[in-house]
Amino acid sequence: MKLFTQTLGTVAAATIAVASNSGGNPLATSDQRDLDALSIKINEDHDFGFLKAEAKATFQIAHGLPISQEANSRIDAAIDELAFSSIQKAVNNDPYYPKVYWVDAGPRNWFGLDVPGGRYSYDNPDCIYRTIPISSKLRYVLRGYRHPEGPTDVTFSLISDPNSQNTVASLAGDDLVVDADGSYTITIDSSSGEGQTNHIKSSLLAQQLFVRNNLGNWQVQTADNLTVELIDDATGHKPIDETAIVHRAQWNLQESIIDYGVGALGLKTMINPVNTLSKPSQSSTLGTLTTQASSFGHFNLKAGEAIVATLSIGEADYFVFPATDPWLITVDPGAYQLSLNSEQAVANANGTYTFVVSRTDPGVSNWIDTAGLNEGTIMVRWQGLPTDSSDKDNGVAIVTQVVQISQLADVLPSGTKYVTPEERKEHLAQRAAGYAQRFQY
Questions:
Q1: Helices (H), ranges, 16-68
Q2: Domain housing 298
Q3: pTM of the model
């Protein structure tokens, strides 16, 4: 370990283990530490009060009346995370000085820093989201290292905006060439890359590389180590200053109010009948992948009720079924079984997967815990799908029904796996330990 001393706001001396290219925690890097520290400083120096008030009002309107006391009790924290995410997007926004930055994650304490949560718009508990600023005028090399137990699903997406996240170009994990030693190199520039492997062609629209590493088995899988290098000379280009970062953060928050309040919450989610999930569809906007199908819904369960949802995986390589709070935020993924993915869930005999969404534990292995909430939101994802088949559903589907927990045995498939209280306790302990690995340093 090395001892670094820096004065950034309230940040004091911190002990830090910096991940190398092939070892250690790939998220615990010196760039991550520095960007987190700067984000904290800006968050402490600027309250963004007017925009937060606008965001709160917009989210409440998108939710619709009435708004329960339970939902209202969580909205301020969700808006605070939305604002911090806007700052995180701004601090790593200089294409002449690109860094790899882990974002859209829950609160943590590391390197002597109390890092607030920066989750927004259906954060996926499986996913390690990292961003790299780029310009189509410049050339970049991204170097990665795949651990022996690497992610279940990986994508590299060039996006036109860090908020709407429209996909400009992408490299899917299935197309990524990884060397025998686990290393790989990706080139990013405006050339065609003809004859090259692992090349992403940028364009005038591209502003950022958005990297997703989905961890199926939290106990053993590790995100890839990533470093980025600007090939062109940055001489003469001063790094963006704090004033520019603050202005960008304000713009990010303003856009996020529309994209996530009006768009994700209002038009994608609350438009659906309560306690149902929409037909899966593919899109390239609002943070979704061109290789991803999504199904949105919101729930409001009475005492003793549960949603039974049966999912068909179709041609997808990976899926995740998570429950989030009324404002699209996970509560505490390490403490609650609020999500299950294609490696964690137990399949039915016919290859489908049936989940039970409820506040209390029904003893079913595929239980989706609402984390004590009666009301919340759901975005089911299927990934690794073909992008040239918008005229068909790729075999992905989901059907739901609301039942009394006491009647579950009458509707669940034959052979449904149940767990004992002791087994549930052990599963939760393993989940907590796997989730905590992300924050080791």
A1: 30-45, 49-63
A2: 273-439
A3: 0.93
Q: What is the CA radius of gyration of the chain?
A: 21
How many other C-beta atoms can be found within 10 angstroms of the C-beta atom of residue 372?
A: 10
Q: Look at the alpha carbons of 326, 332, 337, 341 in this order and tell me if their dihedral is positive or negative.
A: positive
Distances (CA, A) of 283 to 190, 201, 229, 249, 289: 24, 20, 31, 26, 7
Task: Tell me the C-alpha distance between 438 and 184, whole Å.
Answer: 22
Distances in Å between the Cα of 300 and the Cα atoms of 199, 275, 304 are 46, 7, 12
200-258 confidence digits (pLDDT tens) = 999 999 999 999 999 999 999 999 999 999 999 999 999 999 999 999 999 999 999 99
Q: Tell the residue number behind the tokens 């601090």, with chain if given.
A: 91
In a domain, 118, yes or no: no
Nearest to 162 by CA among 75, 215, 94: 94
Q: Which of 193, 380, 386, 367 is nearest to 297 (CA)?
A: 380
Say how far apart CA 76 and CA 172 lie, in whole Å.
Answer: 36
Which amino acid, one-letter code, is at 334? G
* The amino acid at 313: I
**Residue 345 domain flag:** yes
The residue to which tokens 């911090």 are assigned:
84
**Number of structural domains, the chain?**
1
DSSP letters for 315-356: T-SEEEEEEE-TTS--S-TTTS--EEETTTSPPPTTS-EEEE
Q: Which CATH number characterizes residue 282's domain? A: 2.60.120.1600
